[in-house]
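Figure 6 in text form: structure in, sequence out.
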């Protein structure tokens, strides 16, 4: 029963909405003209934050699931070079892909037989499924918060 409770907490944490804005709150109705906008003193545009969220979450997912995992190069492989999306459809497509990968992480939390097991691609005993799920939730919460603040700075936040 304790493992079931832990699984439920992890699944909730991946979508947490009790303590802060959700991913969906942060990306909903983002004006096209602001997706690639840079604010004074802020190094990333909304597009860059969205794409970084997607890339990093996908990396964690691949680490947990792929037999032939290759560690991407930091920071180049984790951040887009261009502050603006490459086309009008890119924002919605990346949002969709992020959500799909998040659903897969929830499935891992729910169905992995032993969350305390070391991920086969891991380099040490600390790299368990539980750690990777917590890492994804923590990383997502951090950058979703940045995206909310940036939207407010750009005048695009509608609470």
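Output sequence:
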């Amino acid at each position: 029963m304790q493992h079931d409770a832990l699984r439920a907490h992890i699944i909730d944490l991946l979508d947490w909405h009790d303590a802060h804005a959700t991913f969906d709150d942060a990306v909903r109705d983002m004006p096209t003209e602001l997706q690639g906008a840079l604010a004074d003193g802020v190094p990333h545009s909304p597009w860059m934050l969205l794409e970084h969220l997607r890339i990093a979450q996908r990396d964690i997912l691949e680490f947990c699931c792929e037999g032939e995992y290759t560690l991407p190069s930091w920071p180049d492989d984790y951040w887009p070079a261009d502050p603006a999306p490459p086309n009008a459809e890119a924002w919605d497509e990346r949002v969709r892909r992020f959500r799909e990968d998040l659903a897969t992480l929830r499935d891992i939390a729910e169905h992995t037989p032993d969350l305390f097991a070391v991920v086969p691609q891991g380099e040490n005993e600390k790299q368990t499924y539980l750690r990777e799920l917590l890492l994804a939730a923590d990383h997502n919460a951090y950058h979703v918060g940045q995206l909310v603040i940036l939207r407010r700075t750009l005048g695009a936040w509608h609470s």
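Caption detail: The mean pLDDT is 94.
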